Amino acid sequence: MSEPSRELSRHARVGVLDIGSNSIRLVVYDRAGRSSIQVFNEKALCGLGYGVSETGNLSVEGMASAAVNLDRFAQIARAMRIGRLDVVATSAVRDARNGAVFVAEIERRLGHTVRVISGDEEARLSALGVLSGFPVVDGVVGDLGGGSLELVNVADRQLGAYATMPIGPLRLGVVDRRQDRRLSSMIDSHLDTAPWLPALNGRTFYAVGGAWRGIAKTHMTNVGYPLEIVHGYTVEEAGLSAFLSGLSRLSNKAIRATPGVPRRRADTLPDAALILHRVLARGKPERVVFSAFGLREGCLYDRLSEGERNADPLLVTAAEIARETNRFAPNPDAVFAWLAPLFPALEPNDERLVRALCMLSDIAWSEHPSYRGEHAFLRVLRLPVAGLEHPDRVFLGLGVLVRYVGHADLKAADTVRALLPPDRCDLAIQVGHALRLGLTLSGVATNLLRRTRLKPTSKGFTLSINPDAMALIGEVVERRIKALAGAIGRPVLVAARRRGRRDS
Known about the structure:
alpha/beta, six-stranded mixed beta sheet, elongated
């Protein structure tokens, strides 16, 4: 049974130790919940699964390397006083004849139970990890480990058909890469066990796993992508398939010379590229989204209550940041309500982003005034938070930049603006101007906004102000009003509210 995270102390650290076919990784999070942030993340490429398909046993060298690194991770976990540590082992350990002996030795060393999960459970947890990482998931989740591939159909945040198959770079490595047709046929024969895969047609494929993240980094380097964040990196299927086809045919020497290839992933990247290429050829998705969230995050998500699962990770994290960084404990809901009349027809995703901007609007108050805008932009753009695709990051960054400096002219912003459609760039800038006006008008003491109100008129908007609050209008506020009017392309006029219509 999964235990809800509330059984832990609210601030207790939690960790997942993932014993995979190729790597062993310890990830420690600052807490359980929807706003978890990694405080420690380290992997060791031990290669436990090398040779399992030929010998039936875990690699002797891999087990020795694993023992050394697990001893290190155990000491770190104890020193960090982790409230809960999940230790899971996947494909290589469950398939090897000596897997049980290895597990017994590791449990003795760790003093902790190792959960050897089935392929079906691995698929389920990986899909849950992707669900925890994106606000909307519709398509097929694929998690490629060193020794297996898991596929799960996901629609309306519900898990559907799934399959697990013993193909991974460590298993394919026994076949000469020059025999490309043999490798492709081997992969295709395993994909035949997922007859529902063509249901991916026209939808999204979510790529999970270290080797596929390595492919994403390589592709980003080769196309000159301006943002070095793998999670949420999105590529149209047609362009990616051509890239994968070329990558899968590279020799060991050529792959190591390819820009962007992670050095320690070089040996396995061509086979990982071939597997992804065959999956895309079978499923024909519209696009591929790379996910940094997978099995480990799925272990955390699996323990959350239904209410915690349904919470928006962006808004939860933004609220935490607001509580920790804001000067005067402003009310983000009041700020959103105040500016909402300017934007009456927001799409659901844009509404959540605007709400997040209201929470993040005072994030850089303690920075040097000359650098507040740049600092706010870069911090928000790179926030280690789930629930954001790359255009969303640019939207938030532009909004908070304009809130601080009144314009979006920043070299760092120019490099990423192309990731956001022009109409959404305009919206982010308009929201930034609205926040700049509201926070200047109130001096960030946002309870004062209750004495004012933005009202639509036939030609533009009226900023209606209680008579006893007219002193809030000064030269700086007038400049902010003019800037907002210019951004939205409609006049904004100031008017004293008639007596008897004053807000409480």
